[in-house]
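Risk register update: the risk of archive-format incompatibility is retired. Evidence:
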Amino acid sequence: IFGYFYYQKPSEEKPIKIGATLALTGKFAFLGEAEANGMRLAVEEINASGGINDKNLELITEDNQGDAKTAVTNMVKLLDIDNVDVVISAFTHITNAIKSVVAEKEKVMIYITTSRNVGGDNRLFFRDYYDAGDHGLALANLVNKSGFKKIAFLTEISDQCKELEDFFNGTASIFQISTQIKEAYNTTEQDLRTNLLKIKEVSPQAIVICGWRHENIIMKQLKELGMINIPGFHWTAPFLPNSDTEDMRKLFEENKAISTWYGLPDSITNSKQREFVKKYQARFGEKPRSDVAYIYDDIYLLSEALKRCDLKAKVRDSKCLSSEMLKTDYAGVGGKITFNERGLSNREVTAIKITNGLWREIPLK
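Archived output:
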């Protein structure tokens, strides 16, 4: 017994544990597994380069299947059994479900949601993702740049799209862009032809679309109803795999669609991004999604904050980590990132348009 205590390493030398609850199976598995891979790659690289001042990072992922109740069970395990030091979460409904459990343990959490209000006033919570409000502003700028003044607004009924709409309207009014008709639909709807026909009746110059879940449905039904010639301005149009097929790209190109985007475009000119794509493909045998670039960056900026706290002998001190995270000024694969005083990331919004079958970046303003 005495020998056991004599040879046991001090707690400070134990790995620093990052616990993540992700949708590794289910309909969003394409996203959850990619996010897990991005974190794995970053952790492997950081540990190979000396870790956190010779302390390794350890990544523990749990599968929530996209279900909020399962995510809570995941988080209780990660916090009470695995004793993780930092938490990572994705999706608004998942983060809302687990945030009180994480707050009770006073852990730093990095969460991936499009809505900026999920973390509330908790200064241990940091949101890093593309922002619904920022993309609403960008869409208004893109419509104005294209010279359109009379538009239709087609939106799913969700908190994220309401946030995008509010920001769009605030900027659109400055540009004297008027919404002739707004059509809203439930996220469970599959037939949007009634909504689209109402839009067709007012003959708008363009349609602003907040419908990332329904892009494949919207574009096909626009074609069916003879409305494909009405240009669309979209929020992250090719986000889901079923919206980014060869047939869908043809429809977007025929529509002259413009979309806001984030992270990685199809046609990459940035040397840092090209190098990242190359090593990710070598490691996992597939092309990385834009989300991978963001979460890969998150592990790196987290590691830098941990190193600074470790120098103060506070590597497991959440308040120290939060303070150091707020000082982030990091040029990552997904672009430059800083956080404001509420722990919200300031990520650049980009715009894309299909040319010759590829989504390519275009000037935002």
